[in-house]
Write a structure and sequence with these properties.
The structure holds 2 protein chains of 2 kinds.
Chain A lengths: L2 E12 L2 E12 L3 E5 L6 H8 L7 E6 L8 H5 L2 E4 L11 H11 L5 H10 L13 H13 L5 E5 L7 H16 L3 E6 L2 H7 L2 E6 L2 E7 H6 L2 E8 L12 E7 L2 E7 L3 H11 L1 E7 L3 H16 L1
Parallel strand pairs in A: 3-7, 3-8, 5-6, 6-7
Antiparallel strand pairs in A: 1-2, 1-4, 8-9, 10-12, 10-13, 11-12
Helix pairs in contact in A: 3-5, 4-5
Chain B lengths: L3 H11 L3 H23 L3 H11 L2 H7 L7 H8 L1 H18 L1 H5 L2 H6 L7 H27 L4 H28 L3 H24 L6 H5 L1 H6 L10 H23 L23 H40 L1 H10 L5 H33 L4 H4 L5 H35 L3 H12 L1 H18 L6 H15 L7 H4 L18 H23 L7
The chains are: A alpha/beta, B mainly alpha.
């Protein structure tokens, strides 16, 4: 499948700080790609390189097959961007900013604009300086979503939005995705990525540490099992790949490496299963495990 | 006012470079001027003769009266341009530590800690007091050390001290009234220009106690008359005014909400007009009120200067001694041309200020991260930058044209010279344009190559101003004076029009601008943090 974004070994330093340290990223046409990492991991820097605002020190980045630095203007006609830190002109109204940004990237669907303003409950008549952070975010979101861009680049787009608006945002992204648009969604909110993304890349300290579909990522990790057994869960704890075992009478709770799932289930059925719930790992757990592992390695 | 002391120390730390720089440099200036005069005219009689030749209406209009034909008196008179800069910087300092902090949201962060509502204002006024003491103290010590009369030096230092406090206190009120720091700075600048104009018009007529000069804050401060029967009691009046202004600022501050001004914002249009929908349309929207402000300023200044010129001509006609003194300077130009040329030189610097301000707007937009969404849309870097630079280059040119026309009309109608005056005066205004462009081009170069230092553009402008106004008095050598583009302009009206330096200035300005824009295309766009 064709890649909309393709980044290899990207390096960008600011003075002595290495913001990007060999980043890799591939975003395929039509997918919603989660770009995950904690604050300061280099997500915004990578996005700014992709937008041609920053010049990479080394590595390659292509956007729609073009050079984001050299072909900035023509590439930008095909994408819409929501910055992580939205600042508006103090004396322009929200509606004016939506129209301006829409026009400058090449056009805006006015019907969709009005519909989005309504859905996000945005007052377009207020001046930029009087908007709260959440409302500034909405202005940028409406401007981006009302465009007919092929690619949406969203840098932590829901920071400052309340849960209601967050769900409006999620349904909007789903609509964009079913309309065939590609979305790069940077976030540190894992529930959001989990709800929206087809594939994710996890970055840390300017380097990609994991990339793939959620299913693939989960495969590499553990499932949580709650089981109610016919007898005492003897021997479970000593099986390979079983972790964090908590025994409570005939009930047992543990995590198991997905590769060992088969063996462990067989052991459980030997004892006799009365009830069983299994839970795939949440992104949260993936994330924490990854970071704990890295920290442990660093220590 | 809990927490004032902490905020005061924070403010001093934040201002640890700029504050010492301007207070010490400007505080040292009167002393430097005094020692220059002392070495130029060691003999008091020569000094008095020089003072007499300087007491002509054109120079009185610009600098104010020479109160005493002594070393100190001439120093006080010639440094009056420095006094204006002190007033402006005092006002900017207060706004920087009050409204600007609040606008950036930093006041909110601190306001949630154990800090009283008025602590921000109080700490800014303490910073102002420190600045005033440094400027005033250095002025008094410097002039006295150069050999001027001790009591007079003290009065001159007091004048600088009070100027700081007065304009700082005015700015403190403006910072409460205006909702943005830019607006507050703008009004403070207008107040200063207004009081300069009032004093100019008052003093140009030769009446040293004209009511116009007395109601002008600058004129009032100058009427403390350092070195000539000092009127110490005027200092008490100024201190009362300062106290009242501080109290008003305090009242406004404790009553209003965070981020609020006196004027409530109204809702605007929900749709953008077509004219807004381009980088240039946006730049026009962002720059137009500033541009209109400048144009009104030029028109007013032109009319005032036109009338002042006429008043000066009348004063010379009525006084044979003055006519004699002017003949002795012997430049061969008429008194009217002298006044207009002196005024144009100052308007030229003002126009350069307008250009620097408009060019800095590009950098301001960039560092506020407001360039980012535009550059992430289908807008090239050159297109975005030139939308603002257009205002930096054409705005001052338009302004000088307006100043020239209004000055020409004002003088032409008052003197009866009529339309002929307009052409001459507009020509004098037009020759300022290359020097203005040169100054703006330096800002563009900084913007493109060392963006962090773009605001040094103001320092460059101040440097040119001081070279032009005080360079000759400080006996700087010609190569130093030649650093300022304004040195190379022909003295019009009255002098010869030499085109070569103008062509060179424009060519260098074009080269610097091209280099700056090329640099901007190659560099990273500011990404905050």
């Amino acid at each position: 499948m064709e890649n909309v974004i393709s980044v290899k070994g990207l390096v960008k330093s600011f003075g002595r700080t290495r913001a990007l340290d060999g980043l890799d990223l591939e975003v395929r046409r039509g997918e919603v790609h989660g770009f995950l990492g904690p604050n300061g991991a280099g997500k915004s820097t990578a996005i700014r390189v992709l937008l041609g605002l920053l010049k990479a020190d080394s590595g390659t980045a292509t956007l729609f097959g073009g050079d984001p630095w050299r072909d900035a203007v023509s590439l930008h006609r095909r994408l819409a961007y929501v910055p992580g830190d939205v600042t508006l002109w103090p004396n322009l109204t929200g509606g004016e900013v939506v129209d301006l940004l829409g026009r400058l990237r090449g056009g805006l669907d006015t019907k969709r604009r009005d519909e989005l303003i309504e859905r996000f409950e945005l007052d377009p008549r207020k001046k930029g300086r009087t908007y709260s952070k959440g409302n500034r975010q909405k202005v940028a979101l409406v401007a981006a979503l009302a465009s007919d861009a092929e690619l949406l680049v969203l840098d932590e787009p829901t920071s400052g939005l309340d849960p209601l608006m967050e769900s409006v945002f999620q349904s909007c992204v789903n609509e964009e995705s079913s309309a065939g648009r590609t979305v790069l969604l940077s976030s540190h909110i894992l529930a959001e990525a989990e709800a929206l993304c087809d594939r994710v890349s996890i970055i840390r300290a300017g380097r990609t540490v994991e990339s793939g579909t959620l299913a693939e990522l989960r495969h590499l990790t553990r499932t949580s099992i709650h089981a109610e057994l016919a007898g005492a869960p003897n021997g479970i704890a000593s099986l390979a790949g079983v972790h964090d075992v908590v025994v409570d009478g005939d009930r047992v709770r543990f995590q198991v490496d997905n590769a060992e799932l088969d063996t462990v289930l067989r052991a459980l059925t030997t004892i006799g299963v009365r009830g069983l719930t299994s839970q795939p790992p949440t992104l949260e757990e993936l994330f924490l495990r990854h970071y704990q592992k890295e920290e442990a390695a660093a220590a | 006012m809990t927490g004032t002391w902490h905020l005061f120390r924070l403010a001093l730390r934040r201002d640890r470079v700029v504050l010492p720089l301007w207070t010490i440099l400007l505080g040292l200036f009167p002393g430097l001027v005094a020692s220059s005069f002392a070495s130029l005219y060691p003999d008091p009689a020569e000094l008095a003769k020089f003072a007499a030749s300087m007491s002509n209406p054109s120079l009185t209009a610009v600098y104010g009266p020479v109160w005493s034909p002594t070393l100190g008196g001439l120093t006080a008179w010639r440094s009056s341009i420095v006094l204006l800069i002190v007033c402006l910087l005092a006002a900017f300092t207060v706004i920087r530590h009050t409204r600007a902090e609040e606008e950036q949201g930093r006041r909110e962060l601190l306001g949630a800690t154990v800090v009283g509502r008025a602590a921000g204002l109080a700490s800014a006024l303490l910073v102002l007091l420190v600045a005033a003491v440094v400027v005033g103290g250095l002025t008094a010590v410097g002039t006295a050390a150069a050999g001027a009369d001790g009591g007079g030096s003290l009065a001159l230092g007091l004048q600088y001290f009070l100027a700081c406090l007065l304009f700082g206190a005015i700015a403190a009120v403006l910072a409460q009234v205006a909702q943005s720091a830019r607006t507050a700075r703008w009004i403070a600048g207008a107040v200063l220009i207004g009081s300069f104009l009032l004093r100019m018009l008052g003093d140009a007529g030769g009446d040293l106690d004209s009511p116009l000069s007395w109601i002008s804050p600058i004129g009032f401060l100058q009427r403390i008359r350092p070195f000539a029967d000092e009127r110490w009691w005027l200092a008490a009046v100024v201190l009362v005014v300062v106290a009242v202004l501080a109290a008003v600022a305090y009242r406004l501050n404790v009553r209003r909400d965070l981020d609020a001004g006196l004027i409530a914002p109204r809702p605007g249009p929900a749709r953008a007009p077509r004219a807004l929908l381009s980088p240039l349309g946006l730049a026009w929207r962002l720059q137009r009120s500033t541009l209109f402000g400048w144009l009104v300023g030029y028109a007013v200044l032109g009319v005032f200067l036109g009338s002042a010129t006429d008043a000066a001509v009348d004063a010379v006609r009525d006084s044979p001694e003055l006519a004699d003194a002017i003949a002795r300077i012997g430049t061969g130009t008429s008194i009217a041309d002298m006044v207009i040329a002196t005024g144009m030189a100052i308007i030229g610097i003002g126009a350069a200020g307008q250009g620097v301000q408009a060019a800095l707007r590009a950098r301001g937009e960039e560092s506020a991260l407001r360039a980012e969404p535009l550059l992430a849309a289908a807008v090239g870097r050159l297109r975005w930058a030139s939308s603002h630079l257009l205002f930096a280059f054409l705005g001052p040119a338009l302004g000088l044209l307006v100043a020239g026309v209004f000055l020409g009309v004002g003088y032409g109608s008052a003197s009866g010279e009529g339309a002929g005056a307009i052409g001459r005066v507009v020509g004098a205004a037009a020759v300022q344009v290359p020097a203005v462009w040169f100054t703006v081009a330096i800002v563009v170069l900084l913007f493109g190559l060392v963006p962090r230092l773009t605001s040094l553009g103001w320092a460059v402008l101040a440097f040119f101003l001081l070279l032009g106004q005080l360079g000759a008095i400080l006996q700087l050598s010609q190569w130093a004076l030649d650093l300022s583009p304004f040195t190379h302009l022909p003295a019009l009206p009255g002098g010869d029009l030499t085109v070569t330096p103008l062509v060179w200035l424009v060519a260098i300005a074009a080269a610097l601008t091209a280099a700056g824009l090329a640099g901007f295309r190659r560099r990273d766009v500011a990404s905050g943090g």
